[in-house]
Amino acid sequence: MTDTYKTIEKPSDEVLFKEKNSKFFGYAFPVQSENEVKEILDQLKKQHYTARHWCYAYQIGTKTKIYRANDDGEPNNSAGMPIYGQIQSFDVTNVLVVVVRYFGGVKLGVGGLVTAYKTGAQMALETAEIVEKTINTHFFIRFDYKNMNKVMRVIKEKNLNVVNQVLELDCLIEISCRLTQKEEIFNAFNHIFEVSITEKED
């Protein structure tokens, strides 16, 4: 089981690929939700309001991934899928790649379009800074205040990240750990008397 994934931290620089007078502007953006995709597309349409096509593909998620590819008026599978192919090729997720086309008066044919959109997407991802992150699981740990030391000892020993905590008579701490540590961490707390641990749902 792997518990890492690759993504980009910040938007890539704008890239430009030209083919027979058509211009293809390529962009890559980090995204966490489909709502963000819509906002970015709206911005690009304002920025390139005289362009002919705003084709894109995105992939979101780590444990389970969702993706979409959009040809935006270009012939079927000539734009969105070649862009998505580059997302797969670079093995990145939580990413949106957009290629904006200004038509130059000469038709490129489906093969020419596939190559142009693929190249635009590839150039955008090549300029993006790709980073590796860990896939984490979150747990809630509930306990009485008197058991605080026992819980804190495990958190310190296992070098766990405390995401949130409410420390009153009834205490609740949210921790995160790498996916591959999930069972070990669950067992470490589950064995402590008067302490309950539950996994946070995604």
UniProtKB/TrEMBL annotation:
Gene Ontology, cellular component aspect: cytoplasm
Tree of life domain: Bacteria
Coiled-coil portions: none
A biological process from GO: regulation of translational initiation
InterPro entries linked to this entry: Impact (IPR023582), Impact_N (IPR001498), Impact_N_sf (IPR036956), Ribosomal_Su5_D2-typ_SF (IPR020568)
SUPFAM superfamilies given in the database record: Ribosomal protein S5 domain 2-like
Membrane-spanning parts: none
UniProt cross-references to Gene3D superfamilies, sorted A to Z: Impact, N-terminal domain
Positions of the Impact N-terminal domain: 20-125
Family: Belongs to the IMPACT family.
Name under which the protein is recorded: Uncharacterized protein, YigZ family
Native source organism of the sequence: Paenimyroides ummariense
